[in-house]
Amino acid sequence: MPKIARGERLEIIAYEYIKEKIVTGDYPAGYRIIESKLSEELNMSRTPIRRAIVSLAHAGFVKHQYNRGAFVENTQVDIAAFFARMKLIELLINESVEKLVLRENYIEVDDLIEKAEKIIRCANENSRKGMIENFEEFVSLLIGKINNDYFNRIVQDLWIELDDHATEEITIIFISASSQLSCELKSIIKYLKMKDYSKLKGASARMMNAMLLTVF
């Protein structure tokens, strides 16, 4: 059983434990995840385990089957899997910006502005690798502003999975969406400089929508 540090949320422990089992192959593709068994292994109630499984489903590690439970997915990130991951990122960004609105006088945003400007430069130079790397860092920085370890771990896992398992067509999406991304990032930079986080929420949603629409 993993050691639980003081103050660490139980769903984080469950999330990391199950993910490790999947990544190492202890839980192969098609393996059914049983909450009651995990509850005994981790010595915790089924509620945080269930929450962790939901997050793992959003991250593409598992899939729920009606009346059957959760099963480990093939980890290759294709177009459909990429869409699901971007939807999760969209939700986390929305939640993060909501909290920024409440803490707007205490948040430093210069690093976000710098990273957004780098994405725009990479888009202008048609640098696919640069766009992907800086977009990942921008999103991680934005979500990281609210200091939520659970959100941060989910996002980190998503980027690692995309970097390791994404198909070639996924990387092409970033170039296809570059024009719209640049447009929305310019708005995001403006609102960050103004510290107008209410308008930042709309611009962030449009940025993610540009990515999602490009998929199809």
Topology:
Layout: H1 10-23, E1 32-33, H2 35-42, H3 46-58, E2 62-65, E3 69-72, H4 79-102, H5 110-124, H6 128-144, H7 149-165, H8 168-176, H9 178-194, H10 197-215
Antiparallel strand pairs: 1-3, 2-3
Task: Please tag this protein with its features.
10 helices, 216 residues, mainly alpha
Please tell me about this protein's structure.
- The chain has a 3-stranded antiparallel sheet with strand order 1-3-2.
- The protein contains 10 helices and 3 strands.
- Helices cover 71% and strands 5% of the residues.
- A hairpin with a 3-residue loop joins strand 2 (62-65) and strand 3.
- It has 216 residues and is mainly alpha-helical.
- It is globular and about 50 Å long.
- The protein starts with 9 loop residues before the first helix and ends with a helix.
- The relative contact order is 0.13.
Write a short abstract of this structure.
By secondary structure, the protein is mainly α. Helix content is about 70%, strand content about 5%.
- As an assembly, this protein is single chain
Distance between the termini: 43 Å
Largest sheet: 3 strands, antiparallel
Secondary structure tally: strands: 3
Question: Spans with pLDDT under 50 lasting ≥5 residues?
Answer: none
With strands numbered from the N-terminus, the spatial order across the biggest sheet is: 1-3-2
Gyration radius, to the nearest Å?
Answer: 18 Å
What is the typical, i.e. mean, pLDDT? 84
| Count of separate DSSP helical elements | 10
